[in-house]
Amino acid sequence: MASCYKCGTVITQGVDAPMQLEAVCEQCSSWLHSCANCAFYDEYSQRKCREPKADFVFDRLGKNVCTFFKLKAGGKAAEQPRKMSPRSQAHDREGKAREKLAALFRV
Hints:
Layout: H1 86-105
């Protein structure tokens, strides 16, 4: 089940057939044929796309004409945990350690 990257509405277009370039979300009117709805989109990779043959796209949220577009299953509706950068992971670990330390001495 695919959903819109912006509002999480379930996408019914382009599931069985190729996604049309002019397709928009029925709820929020955002472009559906965009990098943010693609299965190859990865905001933490160098080119923001895991498909090595794809051309670079500047507007990741806007309409594009990428021939490698594949509708991403899941999206906001699936509530997948976001990947954190190494710096964010270290900051998160530090915060949890401080909380545990504070709880230890609160006794």
